[in-house]
Automatic annotation (TrEMBL):
Residues 1-24 form the signal peptide. The keyword Cell inner membrane does not apply. This is C-type cytochrome. It comes from the Bacteria. Coiled coil: none annotated. It comes from Pseudaquabacterium terrae. PROSITE patterns: CYTC. The lineage of its organism: Bacteria, Pseudomonadati, Pseudomonadota, Betaproteobacteria, Burkholderiales. Residues 25-111 form the Cytochrome c domain.
Length: 111
């Protein structure tokens, strides 16, 4: 039996990898974690709800080098925000995995 991967399979894998944008977030994982963390109760990608849309946030941070760091802090330290005029603690992402937090942040910033 020949256990080596075929050259064609390797080429196909390489092409798939190349077709992804450089800093692609894992969109499906980001959306799943945002849903699980109830983010979409107050946010949506394109429309303003209680909180700004993710497109709005991406535009606000466009070209700012510390964007990722700021949003990681925002989504892990329960900062106080105004919801309906009242001070509330902003929800954290429901994960302890820093890579998962960064993935959601990159997804938001890529909107
Ligand atoms: C109870 C409603 C509510 C929930 C739930 C919520 N947010 Fe927010 N979020 C807000 C509000 C209100 C603001 C605006 C805060 C401000 O501008 O002071 C905000 C701001 C933000 C911002 C912009 C921060 C910035 O620096 O501009 C991001 C990104 C964000 N939220 C992501 C999330 C994610 C991801 C989740 C899930 C873990 C989440 N939010 C859950 C209400 C909510």
């Amino acid at each position: 039996m020949n256990a080596r991967p075929s050259a064609l399979a390797l080429l196909a894998a390489a092409l798939v990898a190349l077709s992804l944008p450089a800093q692609a977030a894992d969109v499906a994982a980001a959306e799943a974690l945002a849903k699980k963390s109830n983010c979409m109760k107050c946010h949506s990608v394109a429309a303003k709800k209680e909180g700004p849309s993710f497109k709005e946030t991406a535009a606000k941070y466009k070209g700012k080098g510390d964007a990722e760091q700021k949003l990681v802090v925002h989504l892990t330290t329960s900062p106080k925000v105004k919801v309906d005029g009242k001070d509330e603690e902003h929800d954290n992402l429901k994960t302890k995995n820093e890579a998962d937090v960064k993935n959601v942040v990159q997804w938001i910033l890529s909107q």
